[in-house]
Amino acid sequence: MIKPSRQWRFLSWYVFWSLLVALGTCLGLWQWERADDKRLAIAERESAPAMIAPTTPPAQGADITLQGEYLAEHTLYLDNRIVDGRIGVAVLTPLRDSHGQLWLVQRGFLATGPHRRPPEAATPSGRVEVTGEWQKAQAGGPLYGDNREGSRLQQLSLEPWQPVLGAFSYAGWLHAEEGDGVLTPWWEASVMPPSRHVGYAFQWWGLALAALAVMFIGGLRLRRDTSP
């Protein structure tokens, strides 16, 4: 009969390694699903149409042209942007289009240097036209304190304008690339290729397989050691 202490050691071995096998398998499946999600995201972006003065929600990655007026007094700045080694901010200005719809336009990079004085970007008045890529609103990363500090934002979000202007017409923002009031473009769509997620999936499954082998080989040795 196996002593209780040895039996507990034997059981603990299998429980520990079984958990590692399950974890590796689940993480591999998660990365595989992420690869499918990225394929869909890339396909959606590549098939997104060019739209002029749209009145329906734009697709992710759509090339949009807007005509309207900037609400210059409501400009805010996305903090801590770096372009070509220069420190600055991204200029965020709401725009009311010719249909009365409210859009948020990310107008580009403004160099400020390391000082923390409130940024100031010149904004054209009257009717303007801007063209850029549409990005649907996304959840940001962790925040350390309030998102807004004066006229600066830690994260790109629609919420800071809503108490004053109300809801934007569509959940997202236009990354302007050319047109009136557009500064140095800095934003690029960041989409990890699906192949990388597939590679991660096989890495996790490989680790799960290795853990399974260790579990059985070590288990056989433990069984021999605990045999009377």
Q: Helical amount among residues, as a percent range?
A: 25-40%
* H/E series: HEEEEEEEEHEH
Provide the β-strand percentage band. 25-35%
Low-confidence stretches: none
Overall morphology: elongated
Radius of gyration: 27 Å
Structural class: alpha/beta
Number of helices: 3
Q: How many DSSP E strands?
A: 9
Separation of termini? Answer: 7 Å
Q: Reading side by side through the largest sheet, how are the strands ordered?
A: 2-4-5-9-6
Mean pLDDT: 87
Q: What would you note in describing this structure?
A:
The chain is an alpha/beta fold and 228 residues long. 36% of the residues lie in helices and 28% in strands. The protein has helices at residues 4-47, 162-165, 194-226; strands at 50-52, 63-70, 76-83, 86-97, 102-111, 127-136, 148-149, 152-153, 172-179. Strands 2-4-5-9-6 form a five-stranded mixed beta barrel. Helix 1 packs antiparallel against helix 3 (194-226). The chain is elongated, with a radius of gyration of 27 Å. It starts with a helix and ends with a helix. The model has no long low-confidence stretch (mean pLDDT 87).
